[in-house]
Amino acid sequence: MTALSGLGTPRLASPELLRSLFRRHAAGVAVITARGETGPVGFTATSLTSVSAEPPMLSFGIGTGASSWPAISETDHVGVHILGEHQQELAATFARSGADRFGPATAWREGPEGVPVLDDVLAWMVCRVAGRVPAGDHRIVLAEVVLGDPSGPGRPLVYHQGRFNGLRD
User: Fold this and answer.
1) Which PANTHER family match (predicted)?
2) Cβ distance 161 to 23 under 8 Å?
3) pTM for the complete prediction?
4) Which domains are delineated in the chain?
5) CB neighbours (10 Å) of residue 163?
6) What are φ and ψ of residue 74, in 5° steps?
7) Most buried residue, 20, 57, 79, 129, by CB count within 10 Å?
């Protein structure tokens, strides 16, 4: 590859390049939850995207090797939680492999459709899974919002440069 004037030296695509590129992209932080066969499951996602206003739909990505994937691959409903800047530890817990995600440190309750709903978030939704689209080693889950609550107090948590942060004015 040759350097492009003013653009640095491009590198060939690889998983490492993609991770490096997306460390430069600030993203909102969400936790996705579902009822699993042996109890609640959940994971931290920075891939949450609004897809459609009519009907209200969103999407998120999940790796097929993730511990939550078996439950997400079979469930009819998921919980989607938008985290506040006060929830860095919660985001880290749901991102950590092998963590007790629904242990005593996590405040939650069973919500509509049996979906685990986290307490004290900026916003939460219960969504009906509409599809799971293969995308490499991931699946893009399309989900229709059934109900939600956007009234939580605070400011959003963002993920940037491999760290959870709050917004700055």
Assistant:
1) FLAVIN REDUCTASE, FMN REDUCTASE (NADH) RUTF
2) yes
3) 0.92
4) 29-160 (2.30.110.10)
5) 10
6) -115, -15
7) 79
